[in-house]
Amino acid sequence: MMIDRPAITLLLGTFAVLVLLRVPITFCLAMAAILTGIYLSIPLEAIVKVMADGVMNFSLLAIPFFIIMGEIMNEGGISRRIVNLANLFVGRLPGGLALVNVLDSMFFGGISGSAVADVSSLGSIVIPMMKKQGYDDEFAVGLTVCSACQGIIIPPSHNMIIYAFAVGTASQLAGGSLLVLSVGKLFLGGYIPGILMGLTMLVIALVIAIRRKYPRGEGHTFKEAMVILLDGFLAMCTALIVVGGVVIGVFTATEAAAFAVIYAFIITFFVYREAPLLRFVKVLYSSLKTLAIVMSLIAAASAFGYLLSRLQVPRLTTEWLLSITDNYYLLLLLVNIMLLILGCIMDMAPLILICTPILFPVLVLKMGMDPVHFGIMLLMNLSIGLCTPPVGAALFVGSAVGKISIERASKGCIPFYISMLIALMLVTYIPAITMTLPNLFMPGK
User: How far apart are CA 55 and CA 73, in angstroms?
Assistant: First the structure.
């Protein structure tokens, strides 16, 4: 079959131009697909059908539940309890509040699965506290922004659901049978890489804190510690319900997310009772807005992916990458560099939906990389993009919360960029970091 280069140029060129013009990404994908479809004489009804089929997938039903769960937990004083729990463990060390910042993001990421939610909720508590204790503004904001990106890797994360969906689409577009990737294995695969990312940040934060003589935190009485532990444990149970239920096999990912919504609703409005029940209306409204954005993005990306496959872009990408090198390790390095660059200029969810069908045939089908390992590597790359200029969403929120410029916030992020890249390279080249838990608890699934 001949390669239609003008159509490929139209598809990718239209998308690139619209992105540069700062058109919302959903419209970039949809317009590029529609114009290319018109050029190829594909009926508009066929493009619309592909978009509709893209969102009519049972596995995507988990996404609205995860979004609602995160919104509920953000309303009920969970952030303060997570900060107190982290302070209990590491607050007495040198630069204790900086270490608390990293650890609370690790805990909160296991609840919300959102870097932006982490920065906006925890940052509004921790950044003013750090400033009051004499921490530099750039350090406080940079650490908050970068540590929030653990929430993408540590489950549960709705981005993992999007990736699992994208894998199924990619396997079909590549001409094979539908690959149903276990969400439970993805969840398990994210734990050690996410914790590793946090540990590297903890080490760098501790070194900086000692060098700059940042203060230690205050201690707690035994009674205070027990109260903090109980409060924090009730919040952390949300993540345990989702991940534990899926791994053990009690729930599907969708059922676990629905059950976690009920649990989050009960502890937020009837146990903690810091938010009135009327706030649930706001939760549903915010969740609906987020869900509309996510699902419309998936619909548009489905049409874009369909045309990528029809024009054989994944095969051409595979051939191009292999023409540069067929060395597996060099190929991984090239892909990492490509993803890091893309993460600087685009948001995470669209990149998952665009890059998975293109890179999946190269690394998974051709080179034999495990799809779980590939997924965690992909998510780690794109999570770094959330805190890098010019489009990093977490960076923008962090600078707004910390009331400093993007330039100063980016400067504060530099030491932690290094720690994140170290963690990324370790996860990329040592598959056991990702695969040990999935192989141990869910072998053969």
Answer: 26
What separation in angstroms does the CA of 109 have from each of 36, 142, 381?
A: 39, 17, 17
Question: Integer distance in angstroms from the first to the last C-alpha of the chain?
Answer: 37
Residues 352 and 375: their CA atoms lie apart, in Å, by 9
- The answer to whether 256 and 157 are in contact (CB under 8 A) is no
pTM (two decimals): 0.89
pLDDT at 175: 66
Cα dihedral across residues 192, 195, 197, 200: positive or negative: negative
Q: At what angle do helices 96-112 and 222-248 cross, to 10 degrees?
A: 30
Distance CA 240, CA 153 (A): 15
Angle at 323 between CA 318 and CA 328, to 5 degrees: 70
pLDDT tens digits along 54-81:
888 777 888 888 888 878 877 777 778 8
Q: In whole angstroms, give the CA distance from residue 354 to residue 95.
A: 41
What radius of gyration do the chain's Cα atoms show? 22
Chain segment 232-284, per-residue pLDDT in tens: 888 788 778 888 888 787 888 888 888 888 988 998 888 888 888 888 998 89
The one-letter amino acid code at 206 reads: L
Residues with Cβ < 8 Å from 137, sequence gap 6 or more?
Answer: 131, 402, 404, 408, 412
In this structure, are residues 148 and 191 in contact, taking their beta carbons and an 8 Å threshold? no
Domain ranges of the chain: 58-294+313-441
**CA 351 centroid distance within chain:** 11
For the chain, the residue count is: 445
Encoded tokens for 23: 């058109």
Taking alpha carbons only, the member of 153, 205, 86 closest to residue 426 is 153
Closest by CA to 356, choosing from 301, 395, 413, is: 301
Confidence of residue 193 (pLDDT cuts 50, 70, 90): very high
Check if the beta carbon of residue 304 is closer than 8 Å to that of residue 354.
Answer: yes
Residue 5: how many other CB atoms lie within 10 Å: 10
pLDDT of residue 253: 81
